[in-house]
C-alpha cells in the first residue's frame, strides 16, 4: 500500500499574458503592410480595414471605433509622401516637430479621410461595389509555449495567381438600355450587353512561405488575416487568407480558457500526510506545489500563490 499511487489533478490557474491589440504598433503595423509597401498597397490595405472597422458597421463597439481612428491616422501619414518620409526617418516625434515648425500637420478628421477616399459613399455601399474572390480559412495549431510567450510559425502557401496571357478578352461588361421606334408613336425598349476589350489573363499556381505571428494569450478561434491573399478574382479583388488559431495538444498541460491544467502523481503516503512537488512551467521556470495533511479522493483544495509576475487565481487539487 505504501507504494500505491493515486493520480492528482492539479489545476494551475495561471493567467496568460494579454497584449494590447494596437499597443506599440507603427503606422505600418496598423495598416498591416510592410515598411516598403507601395502607395497602391497602402491604399488597398486602408480600404479593407476602413470598411471593416467603420462606425456604421460597428455601432456601440468602442474598440472598433478606436481601431478606425488609428487606421485613418496611419493612412493620413503614409499616403502623404512628405509626411511618410519624415515618419520613416524620425517617427511620430518628427511629425510633431515638423507641424510645429510650420509644416503641414494633421487636421482632417477620420470621416473626412474616409469620404475623400471613397467619394462620400457609406461603408455598406462601398463594400457592395467590391467584387471579391473567396476567402480561404486554414486551421492552424499553435503550441502552448507560443500562446503563452508569443511566437511565429512558417507556413507554406500554394495559391492561384493571375498572370498576363496572349490575346484579348471581354471585360467590364454592362447592360445598356435604349429604345427603338417600331411604328408611329411606338417604341420598344431594348437591352444590350456592352463589353470592353482587355488584355487576357490566366491562373498560375505559385507558392511561398508566410510568417504567421502568434500573440501572447490568443484564444482558440482567433484569426490572423492576410488581406487579399485568398482566392483571386479576375476584374476584382482577391479574398482574404485567414489562419484560425487552435491550441495544439501538449504533453504536460491542457488549456481551458486562460487556465492551465496539469496532472501529477503522488504516493498514497503523500496523499495521507502531505507532499511537496515541483513542476516545470511553459517558459521552463519551476513552480513549487505543496499540500499539508490528508488529500482525500475527489477532494478539491483551493489556494493562492504567486508565480513570478503572474497572479494565480484559486487553484485546485483533486484526487482520483
How far apart, in Å, are the first and last alpha carbons?
A: 16 Å
| Strand-pairing-aware structural class | alpha+beta
Question: What's the number of helices?
Answer: 8
Provide the low-confidence segments as ranges: 1-23, 303-320
CATH arch. level architecture of the largest domain: Sandwich
Query: How much strand content do the residues show?
Result: 35-45%
Estimate the helix proportion, in percent: 25-40%
CATH top level assignment of the largest domain = Mainly Beta
Mean pLDDT: 77
CATH fold topology of the largest domain: HSP40/DNAj peptide-binding domain
The CATH fourth-level homologous superfamily of the largest domain: Urease metallochaperone UreE, N-terminal domain
Q: What would you call the shape?
A: elongated
Number of domains: 3
Output the helix-strand order.
EHHHHHHEHEEEEEEHEEEE
Subcellular location: Endoplasmic reticulum
GO biological process, one term: protein folding
Organism: Protea cynaroides
Pfam families: DnaJ (PF00226), DnaJ_C (PF01556)
What are the salient characteristics of this protein?
alpha+beta; three-stranded mixed beta sheet; disordered N terminus; 42% strand; HSP40/DNAj peptide-binding domain; elongated; 8 helices; Helix Hairpins; 320 residues
Could you walk me through the main structural features you see in this protein, from its secondary elements to its overall organization?
This protein has 320 residues and is α+β, with helices and mostly antiparallel strands. The strands form four sheets. The protein has a five-stranded antiparallel β-sheet. Strands 2-6-5 form a three-stranded mixed β-sheet. Strands 3-4 form a two-stranded antiparallel ribbon. It has three domains: 74 residues, no CATH class; 111 residues, DnaJ domain (Helix Hairpins, Orthogonal Bundle), CATH 1.10.287; 113 residues, Urease metallochaperone UreE, N-terminal domain (HSP40/DNAj peptide-binding domain, Sandwich). It contains eight helices and twelve strands.
Amino acid at each position: 500500500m505504501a507504494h500505491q499511487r493515486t493520480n492528482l489533478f492539479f489545476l494551475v490557474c495561471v493567467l496568460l499574458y494579454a497584449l494590447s491589440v494596437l499597443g506599440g504598433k507603427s503606422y505600418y503595423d496598423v495598416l498591416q503592410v510592410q515598411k516598403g509597401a507601395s502607395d497602391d498597397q497602402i491604399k488597398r490595405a486602408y480600404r479593407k480595414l476602413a470598411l471593416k472597422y467603420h462606425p456604421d458597421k460597428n455601432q456601440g463597439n468602442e474598440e472598433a471605433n478606436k481601431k478606425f481612428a488609428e487606421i485613418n491616422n496611419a493612412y493620413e501619414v503614409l499616403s502623404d509622401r512628405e509626411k511618410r518620409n519624415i515618419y520613416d526617418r524620425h517617427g511620430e516625434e518628427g511629425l510633431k516637430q515638423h507641424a510645429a515648425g510650420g509644416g503641414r500637420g494633421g487636421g482632417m478628421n477620420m470621416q473626412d479621410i474616409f469620404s475623400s477616399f471613397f467619394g462620400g459613399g457609406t461603408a455598406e455601399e462601398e463594400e457592395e461595389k467590391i467584387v471579391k474572390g473567396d476567402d480561404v480559412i486554414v486551421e492552424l495549431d499553435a503550441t502552448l509555449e507560443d500562446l503563452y510567450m508569443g511566437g511565429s510559425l512558417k507556413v507554406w502557401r500554394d495559391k492561384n495567381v493571375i498572370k498576363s496571357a496572349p490575346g484579348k478578352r471581354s471585360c467590364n461588361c454592362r447592360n445598356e438600355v435604349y429604345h427603338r421606334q417600331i411604328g408611329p408613336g411606338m417604341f420598344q425598349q431594348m437591352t444590350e450587353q456592352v463589353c470592353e476589350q482587355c488584355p487576357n489573363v490566366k491562373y498560375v499556381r505559385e507558392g511561398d512561405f508566410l510568417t504567421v505571428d502568434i500573440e501572447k494569450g490568443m484564444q482558440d478561434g482567433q484569426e490572423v488575416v492576410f488581406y487579399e491573399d485568398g482566392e483571386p478574382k479576375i476584374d476584382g479583388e482577391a479574398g482574404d487568407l485567414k489562419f484560425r488559431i487552435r491550441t495544439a495538444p501538449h504533453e504536460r498541460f491542457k488549456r481551458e480558457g486562460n487556465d492551465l491544467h496539469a496532472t501529477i502523481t503522488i504516493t498514497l503516503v503523500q496523499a495521507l500526510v502531505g507532499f511537496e512537488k515541483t513542476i516545470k512551467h511553459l517558459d521552463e521556470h519551476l513552480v513549487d506545489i505543496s499540500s499539508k495533511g490528508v488529500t482525500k479522493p475527489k477532494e478539491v483544495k483551493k489556494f493562492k500563490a504567486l508565480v513570478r509576475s503572474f497572479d494565480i487565481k484559486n487553484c485546485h487539487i483533486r484526487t482520483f
